[in-house]
Q: What sequence folds into this?
């Protein structure tokens, strides 16, 4: 939970300058904005991160995530996929159980969950074998997650493909759509990090038969300006009018955006968005029954007195024009040393569940801490 001293200090800086605090701040652990769970690392479980939610037919909510069991919790340390559940709309959570053992040389990670129009649950995750081989796999369940199918390789082409957690969507017309970042190789040694090129290109793959066959969109995009990151960790959301908005993290000071008018078959060139951020992923979903988009991201627009380069603060903002502009941000986490990212978003009635990394850069826990927060949509919408 946010330190009252830190928060008071931040707000006092604005008071001393004669300026109003440029954000709405609610109490950090009250019914309208409650921390439901914080999973700290341990010696045999050094990191928990990057998951996704789903609601079962019974009303139970499940959350599947990457549970590390070796090393220090780096992206290439051993990990499996675990699941916890809640029977009270996300207020309390069960003990974890493993649902997918480690199928890679390194790990399995970055979970997406989706109930498709067929009624099946879809579980997408990465199998990471080495620095040249990382690809997404799909499992499905027809019994609400009691059992899962054998894994199916989604991208058969060799290479290092990154799919963030909570990225799989289905459009109103039934198309499954998955945004992907492709990383080229710099060398031939699969076990050396020097073979990995951090600069990514964005692409999209889609399926019109509930995940049986997949094909690539017509175009890939590289960063249009000189960049050390390229277009990393893209996401996608369908607007109310049926058009698609995609975005990717960059080192150029903001998320870059793309548009599609044909259901994801082709995409416009990337351009800067108004989501100013460090090299950290944003998460965006449409609020059910509305034309509003909810974004959760690290706001580095200048509204907040935090050092550059850190994944803090974590804010939520709503767009009423398809992502062109965003309303007044609401502060979710404000510790200047916090490391808040990889947010999963799940709507539950009049509330939203958010699960994200909540480590501390000073303590060097970074991605190793998992937090689940339940927040009121009424508060997020308030002016």
A:
């Amino acid at each position: 939970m946010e330190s009252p001293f830190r928060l008071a200090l931040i707000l006092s800086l604005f008071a001393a300058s004669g300026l109003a605090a440029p954000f709405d701040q609610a109490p950090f652990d009250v019914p309208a904005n409650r921390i439901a769970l914080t999973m700290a690392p341990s010696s045999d479980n050094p990191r928990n991160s990057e998951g996704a939610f789903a609601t079962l037919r019974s009303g139970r909510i499940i959350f599947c995530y990457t549970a590390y069991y070796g090393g220090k919790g780096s992206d290439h340390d051993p990990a499996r996929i675990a699941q916890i559940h809640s029977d009270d709309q996300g207020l309390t959570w069960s003990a974890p159980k493993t649902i997918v053992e480690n199928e890679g040389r390194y790990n399995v990670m970055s979970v997406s969950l989706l109930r498709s129009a067929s009624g099946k649950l879809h579980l997408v995750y990465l199998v990471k074998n080495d620095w040249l081989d990382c690809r997404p796999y799909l499992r499905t369940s027809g019994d609400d997650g009691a059992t899962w199918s054998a894994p199916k390789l989604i991208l058969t082409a060799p290479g290092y493909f990154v799919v963030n957690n909570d990225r799989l969507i289905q459009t109103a017309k039934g198309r499954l759509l998955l945004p992907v970042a492709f990383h080229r190789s710099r060398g031939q040694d699969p076990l050396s990090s020097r073979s990995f090129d951090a600069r990514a290109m964005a692409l999209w793959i889609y399926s019109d038969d509930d995940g049986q066959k997949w094909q690539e969109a017509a175009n890939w995009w590289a960063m249009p300006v000189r960049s050390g990151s390229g277009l990393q960790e893209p996401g996608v959301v369908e607007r109310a009018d049926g058009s698609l908005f995609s975005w990717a993290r960059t080192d150029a000071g903001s998320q870059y955006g793309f548009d599609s008018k044909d259901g994801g078959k082709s995409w416009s060139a990337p351009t800067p968005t108004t989501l100013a951020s460090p090299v950290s992923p944003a998460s965006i979903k449409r609020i059910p029954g509305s034309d509003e988009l909810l974004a959760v991201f690290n706001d580095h627009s200048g509204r907040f007195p935090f050092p550059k380069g850190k994944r803090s603060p974590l804010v939520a903002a709503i767009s009423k024009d398809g992502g062109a502009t965003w309303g007044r941000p609401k502060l979710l986490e404000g510790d200047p040393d916090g490391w808040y990212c990889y947010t999963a978003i799940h709507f539950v009635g009049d509330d939203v569940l958010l699960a994200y990394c909540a480590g501390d850069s000073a303590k060097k826990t970074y991605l190793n801490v998992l937090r689940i927060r339940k927040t009121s949509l009424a508060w997020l919408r308030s002016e």
Observations:
- The chain has two helices and 26 strands.
- The CA atoms of residues 254 and 275 lie 6 Å apart.
